[in-house]
Amino acid sequence: MKLFKDIKESYTELVYKVSWPTQKQLVNSSVLVLIASIILAVFIWAVDKIFSLLMELVYSINF
């Protein structure tokens, strides 16, 4: 019985108490996440490229 009560309370909360974003808010948030992900990916790629070039330089030095 407790399980059914919990399910009913969860449904009621989802339907009546949760404030769902509008389509415009959802699209804006998605675009923001996409842009932030691209910026982070480019930054990580650049750092990786710099370290790669530095390691090539270090390994090419003959003592």
Uncertain regions spanning at least 5 consecutive residues: none
Rg result: 25 Å
The general outline is: elongated
Strand content: under 5%
Structural class: mainly alpha
What summary fits the major beta sheet?
A: none
Output the number of helix runs: 2
- Fraction of helical residues: over 70%
What's the rounded overall pLDDT mean? 94
Order of helices and strands: HH
**How many strands appear in the DSSP assignment?**
0
Report how far the terminal alpha carbons are from each other: 78 Å
Quick summary of this structure?
The protein has helices at residues 2-17, 23-60. By secondary structure, the chain is mainly α.
Question: What can you see in these coordinates?
Answer:
It is a single chain. The protein has 63 residues and is mainly α. The chain has a domain at 20-63. Helix content is 86%, strand content 0%. It is built from 2 helices and no strands. The protein has helices at 2-17, 23-60. The chain is elongated and about 75 Å long. It starts with a helix and ends with a helix.
Per-chain topology:
Blueprint: H1 2-17, H2 23-60
Provide keyphrases for this structure.
63 residues; elongated
